[in-house]
Amino acid sequence: MEQPPDLVEPVLAWYDVHARDLPWRRPEASPWSVVVSEFMLQQTPVARVLPVHEAWLERWPAPAALAAAPTGEAVRAWGRLGYPRRALRLHAAATAMVEQHGGEVPRDREALLALPGVGDYTAAAVASFAFGQRHVVLDTNVRRVHTRVLGGAEFPGPSVTRAERDRAAALLPADEATAATWSVAVMELGALVCTAADPSCPRCPVAEHCAWLRAGRPPHAGPPRRAQAWAGTDRQCRGRLLGVLRDADGPVHRQRLEAAWDDDVQRERCLAALVADGLAVATSGATYALPG
DNA sequence: TAGCCGTGGAG
DNA sequence: TCTCCAAGGCT
């Protein structure tokens, strides 16, 4: 498979002009700053991550600082970013960096992959964006751009396929630093131009090469992507309960939690799950709190 | 692997 | 109002 020579240059040129000035992208940003940003950005929009990321870096400027803090403080400082287990995983990752990597963010992709909360995407992203390495970085933005420009379809399938990964690898520039910039540039293109709901093809630097646009932007043909139920789910219940603990200074009485959710069975199930997950602890027979 | 895990802004 | 979904990971 040969590299189509016309994609890299236009995308890099576009990125040079339109890239957002994000804290974790600045030259002085530490690898730790990149790690914190990648955890927070997992399924959470940039706009909501920005203030929390800044607060975290101020409070915990290095892995050792976070590792020394109680996990409950990490959960509290996570605020309303969602998926609070990410805060626990980031704390655990910081601990692993202290215990196994001298307090530094490991540079090796395999070592990154071994950290809690770091999967294939995050390992490649940190290795690329913090250390300038050459890796296939496949997130939802990149997958969407590749699917449209090269695949001619509106949306990628539910999971990454081997063919998709091979295609991404074939597109990756040979030079290490160029590859790293290419990866972040394609992500940015997906985030700002080739968006899911409202792509603005007139502003796209590779519109003339886009198979999907050329085909008349045909709508998604595959199985409908199942909408995630929300009202009345355990997720909503857990969020409600954890919100009570997060917004309290100290332990809260059961009554406060009971007032937050009507269904007794579901509330008790979720409370037990939060404790099992390490997001909450029973501080007495009748009180709960974030873990100390 | 499919289901689960939060939250709130945008259209 | 309601649906969609935003730089995933884990089991």
From TrEMBL:
Which Gene3D superfamilies does the entry link to?
Helix-hairpin-Helix base-excision DNA repair enzymes (C-terminal), Hypothetical protein, domain 2
For this UniProt record, give its keywords in alphabetical order, as a comma-separated list: 4Fe-4S, DNA damage, DNA repair, Glycosidase, Hydrolase, Iron, Iron-sulfur, Metal-binding
**All copies of domain HhH-GPD, residue ranges:** 40-192
MF-aspect GO terms: 4 iron, 4 sulfur cluster binding; 8-oxo-7,8-dihydroguanine DNA N-glycosylase activity; adenine/guanine mispair binding; metal ion binding; oxidized purine DNA binding; purine-specific mismatch base pair DNA N-glycosylase activity
What domain of life does the UniProt record list for this protein's source?
Bacteria
EC numbers: 3.2.2.31
The record's section on Pfam families has: HHH, HhH-GPD
User: What PANTHER family is this protein classified in?
Assistant: ADENINE DNA GLYCOSYLASE (PTHR42944)
Q: What is this protein called?
A: Adenine DNA glycosylase
Output the lineage of the source organism.
Answer: Bacteria, Bacillati, Actinomycetota, Actinomycetes, Propionibacteriales
